[in-house]
Each structure stands twice: as C-alpha cells, then as structure tokens.
Amino acid sequence: MKVAILYGGKSGEHEVSLRSAASVVRHLDASHKIQLIGVAKDGAWYLQPDSVLQTCLEGDQPLELRADGPTVLAVPGRGLRVYGARGSADLRLDVVFPVLHGTFGEDGTVQGLLECAELPYVGADVAGSAIAMDKELAKSLWLQAGLPVVPSITVRRADADDIGGLAARVEAAFGWPAFVKPARCGSSVGASKISGPSDLQGAVRSALLYDTKAVIEPFVQAREIECAVLGNDEPRAFPPGEIVPSHEFYDYDAKYIDPDGAALVIPAALDEATAARVMDVAVAAYRAASLSGMARVDFFVDKKDGTVRLNEANSIPGFTSISMYPMLCEAGGLPYAALLDELMELAVGKKRDRDELRFSR
C-alpha cells in the first residue's frame, strides 16, 4: 500500500507522536511505500523529504519533523495535495495512518478532515474519536450501557471560581486523595494527584490550561490494567497487561521519558475470571463508545475486592518501543507488522462500507 504517516501535531503530546510514528515506520512491512507528513506545532502540514524516512529506518531516534518543505492540504473530495515551489500535485495514497495523540489528532478533528477528503484512515471515525477523547462523555455512555466506571466530577471554568463549593462536592462524592485532569487530553498531560482541598485550586487551574473542562476522580488503591481491542464491526480483545509504575502514579515521565518509570507485565497476573471480565467489558466499552480500528481500554482493578472499573479508552494508543498496545497484541499472537497491516486493511474496509451508503435521495 501507499501509506501516509501523519505525525507531530499541535497538542502537548507532539513529542510522544514523534516517538510513536518512528516505531510505526520501523515496523511497517517493507513492501509498503511510506510517505511522511509532519504536522508542526502551529498546525501546518509538511511533506517530509526521503532523507527523514531513511534516517528513521537506519536509527532508533524519534522522527524528525522538518518545516521547510512543501506544504500539504486536504482537498474536499480530492484527497491530499502538495504545494511547493514548483507548483502543486496530488498525493496518491491508499491509506492514511494518523499517529497523532491528543487534541487535533485523536479527538475527531483530523478524522473529519480526512472524511471530507474521502481518504481511508486508520482508527476510529469522527464520533468514536470524539467520544473516547472526552472522559466525561465516554463515562456517561458507559454508565448508560450498564458498565462499571470510576466515578468523577466534571469541572468547568465557571465552577473553578468556587473552590470551596467544589471541595465540598469532592468530599461528599468520594473524598481525598483525588486526581484532577483535563477532560480531553491524554498521556497524563495536565494531570495532578492531590491530597486535600488545599491542593485543589492549583490542580484545577493546571488542568484547565489544556481544556475548557476537567474531571476529578477518586484515588483508588488499584492495579492499573490495560486491554487492547482491535476491529470494526466484530472487535476482539487481547489478554490484558498490567502497568506497575515506579513513580507516584503513571505520569507523563513514567510513560515516555523514564525507561524505568513503570514495569509492563504481559499478560497481567489476573485470575481467569477477572481477565475474562476485563476483556468482555473492554469490548462492550469499545462498542458503546462507537470505536473502530483500534483502542486501548484502561481499567482499575481494586486491590481489596477485585472490582473491575473502566477508566478511559484511547483511540490512538501509543506505539513507542515501550507502549502497551502493540506489546499486548504481539503477546496475544499478532506481531507488530501484522497488526499494522490489519489496521490498514480495517481502514480500507471501513471506507469501502461508507462508500456504499447513500448521501442523497
């Protein structure tokens, strides 16, 4: 296939994307023709020279992103078009693989752009991406579906003016300690663990730097369990793994910077019934959130009574060398390169199904 890797982005997870995309490039089967498109921090798309691809294939560093070459624009109904000093030309592609984490990449915005351009793309569609990105919305749908979730309180900017009232709500709902995080960010960007009311205002202000709403959740003495789900109409779950962080919690540094920030236990040491419960709930959550392509569904398993609770879903999970999603799939019998091939086939199949729909009478 002729595949465009879309990486970088405007979000606080830009650097994570450079690592994930490099790993994807190195694991794609050599039969595919790769075209790199870097999304700069200002949102502009740039076609990358062949030298960037070659350097990536020969090394082990994050992908470089050069912003001095031809720009790329999505043209409604016409795919992607390259604009350079010598004029413009269509970019012929079979599939786009967005390796964009967080805002403007994982939240449905890029997916909508690719829909308008009528291009097949890997991962969830507009609705699924937006739902999974919004922790408040996802939990609401999961509760409606009868699934177990970690309770939470949603905070908007107007609520932040009454910290005393907000603290009282937290104490009445679940008490301290608690976590505060942006409602629509990933990779623990803007997330804080707080021990009591005195920490609340700073944590809320920090979270609201990254989103217009935040969620507050209880601290649960629990094991952090993650489950990989793959598929469109018939999704399947892989045996779950466990994150054992060496930091106070599984923060940004533990996920991407510190190689000893967490131990990944694959498969997780769960009894057969609990592992089956996690996998069943992961697929149910995937369906309830209208996800397709792929997602990593995260859980807390209570250390005291073994209760399984949904935490969140990630529609474009990390693909770095220490990321759980591809490792879970590989441990479940699907090697990295085969996983990437299946994801692209799912994308093409989803586009084919959509093309069969009627959009006018």
Report on this model:
This protein has 361 residues and is α+β, with helices and mostly antiparallel strands. It folds into three domains: 2-121, Rossmann fold; 131-148 and 221-353, D-amino Acid Aminotransferase, Chain A, domain 1 (2-Layer Sandwich); 153-218, Dna Ligase, domain 1, CATH 3.30.1490.20. The chain has eleven helices and 17 strands. It has helices spanning 14-27, 50-58, 109-116, 126-133, 135-144, 163-173, 200-207, 252-257, 272-288, 324-331, 336-355; strands at 2-8, 33-39, 45-47, 71-75, 79-84, 87-91, 95-99, 153-156, 178-182, 192-194, 213-218, 222-231, 236-237, 241-245, 262-265, 293-302, 308-314. The strands form four sheets. Strands 12, 13, 14, 15, 16 and 17 form a six-stranded antiparallel sheet that branches. A hairpin with a 5-residue loop joins strand 2 (33-39) and strand 3. The chain is globular and about 65 Å long. The two termini are 34 Å apart. The model has no long low-confidence stretch (mean pLDDT 93).
Q: How are the SSEs placed, and which strands pair?
A:
Elements: E1 2-8, H1 14-27, E2 33-39, E3 45-47, H2 50-58, E4 71-75, E5 79-84, E6 87-91, E7 95-99, H3 109-116, H4 126-133, H5 135-144, E8 153-156, H6 163-173, E9 178-182, E10 192-194, H7 200-207, E11 213-218, E12 222-231, E13 236-237, E14 241-245, H8 252-257, E15 262-265, H9 272-288, E16 293-302, E17 308-314, H10 324-331, H11 336-355
Parallel strand pairs: 1-2, 1-7
Antiparallel strand pairs: 2-3, 4-5, 5-6, 8-11, 9-10, 9-11, 12-13, 12-14, 12-16, 14-15, 16-17
